[in-house]
Design brief:
Blueprint: H1 17-29, E1 42-46, E2 49-52, E3 57-60, H2 63-66, H3 75-85, H4 97-109, E4 116-120, H5 123-136, E5 142-146, H6 155-160, H7 164-167, E6 177-180, H8 200-212, E7 217-223, H9 238-249, E8 252-256, E9 280-283, E10 294-298, H10 300-303, H11 319-334, H12 337-358, E11 362-368, E12 371-376, H13 387-399, E13 402-403, E14 414-417, H14 425-443
Parallel strand pairs: 3-13, 5-6, 5-7, 7-8, 8-9
Antiparallel strand pairs: 1-2, 2-3, 4-10, 9-10, 11-12, 12-14
């Protein structure tokens, strides 16, 4: 499978006969609680190309789900993980060289005030840990987060999340969770327009506190950009104003960088686009770039509040995940994948904005590096979400050899474009041409 160029190779009707057999097995033996994706049964992948069980090849515009930042099966990554598999997998909380080295590396590449690291397995675990750390280090217990936020599916993470679909029917949830509107400028909760609004949604936080808080706020938690809500990028000045508000309240600023870190937004960390100093940062996905790994990085005065044994993890910081993460970070740095993300992402944004001018069904295009959201509407004037059209575009793209995840967004009408960061400009343009064809077909119906 060549990384230099891409043309779909579709040898069978989709889904193919082998894929159909595995789909039927899955339907028989697995619950249907997982997200509903196009019927692509992956067999292997290399770089930005996926091969299914029938030998069909697809261009990857999803990176799994913002995980394979270094591309699939990078030779050095494979070499390092294979070597570790022959040595050691797990030893609980006993120290291993790679765990200690990964902790050192994460402190080295984050701002100097973030000087301690706790290594875990999943993004949701980092949110749970951040909540515990914030509450332990403060007399307060309330966590303020935002509508549209996705922080994971465990109970604490669901509780601070801001999307009903994640937590519907699972109550009661964690107490002390306050919510406020996020800066979804395309669909402003206050019917205002940026920049004339002067970021009114943050002024509204004072009203939230006056009406909902018990006076025990300990932290504000936000994604650097909102992923699941529709790849919503904060406007200029938002993050700085939010940090100033936190400092005034005496509250910690916790940034969920699980989706935004390790080059995805065109910088190593998403918060590097802004003049902020978070107190705690949650990392995941691209950190392991395939092998599950996550981490909480924070100020030592916060991280050292806990006594030995108060936070621990059976699989967190295991030898395999730590060595994989070290290999991924080395690749990201050596190959300047944040730089490639910024360059190719800018090209993709230009092309998508041209499509927006052509297609009435494209209401908004927004992005940062190689995380891009295309919001699909019935027409630009009404902005009515076009959920079915969005699903149809994703499916038509799949039929033509482009793999994307199911639509995201508060109205399920946003196409998420998030290819591996090794993608070339030529590959990106080839994928966008497929997407254009799919939009053309669906718009013409």
């Amino acid at each position: 499978m060549s990384e230099a160029a891409f043309a779909p190779r579709l040898a069978t009707k989709l889904p193919g006969p082998k894929a159909q057999r595995f789909i039927e097995l899955s339907e028989q033996y697995e619950p249907n609680c997982m997200s509903e994706q196009v019927p692509l049964v992956w067999r292997r992948a290399e770089g930005v190309v996926i091969e299914d069980v029938d030998g069909n090849e697809f261009l990857d515009f999803c990176s799994g789900v913002l995980v394979a930042n270094i591309g699939h099966c990078h030779p050095y990554y494979v070499q390092e993980t294979q070597a570790q598999c022959a040595e050691l997998f797990n030893c609980y909380d006993f120290i291993t060289p790679h765990r200690a080295q990964l902790a050192e590396k994460l402190v080295a590449i984050t701002p100097p005030h973030l000087d301690k690291t706790f290594i875990l397995t999943t993004g949701a675990e980092t949110i749970e840990s951040a909540i515990k750390l914030a509450r332990r280090s403060s007399e307060g217990f309330e966590i303020l987060s935002f509508y549209g936020a996705f922080h994971g599916r465990t109970y604490g993470a669901m509780s601070v999340g801001g999307m009903a679909g994640v937590k519907h029917g699972f109550g009661p949830l964690l107490e002390g969770c306050l919510k406020a509107p996020f800066c979804y400028c395309y669909r402003c909760a206050f019917d205002k327009t940026y920049p004339e609004c002067e970021i009114f949604c943050l002024d509204h936080l004072d009203r939230v506190m006056a009406r909902e808080s018990t006076g025990a706020l300990c932290a504000v938690l936000t994604e650097t950009y909102q992923g699941g809500a529709g790849s919503i990028i904060p406007p200029e000045g938002y993050m700085e104003k939010l940090q100033a508000w936190c400092r005034k309240q005496g509250a910690l600023l916790i940034l969920d960088e699980v989706q935004a870190s390790f080059g995805r937004t065109g910088k190593m960390f998403g918060f590097e686009h802004y003049d902020v100093e978070p107190d705690i940062v949650c990392l995941g996905k691209g950190l392991g770039s395939g092998v599950a790994c996550s981490a909480v990085v924070g100020r030592s005065e916060i991280m050292d509040m806990l006594e030995p044994g108060e936070m621990s993890s059976t699989n967190g910081g295991n030898a395999l995940s730590c060595r994989a993460a070290l290999a991924a970070i080395k690749i990201i740095e050596d190959e300047d994948l944040p730089g490639n993300s910024a360059r190719v992402g800018a090209v993709m944004m230009d092309e998508l904005n041209e499509m927006k001018e052509r297609f009435e069904n494209i209401g908004d295009v927004r992005g940062q590096g190689l995380v891009i959201g295309v919001e699909v509407v019935e027409d630009r004037q009404s902005k009515t979400p076009a959920e079915q059209k969005t699903k149809d575009i994703v499916y038509e793209s799949y039929k033509r050899g482009l793999a994307m995840i199911a639509p995201i967004g508060l109205h399920h009408n946003v196409i998420r474009i998030a290819p591996p960061l090794v993608i070339t400009e030529a590959q990106a343009k080839a994928g966008l041409e497929i997407l254009r064809e799919a939009i053309e077909v669906v718009s013409g119906r």
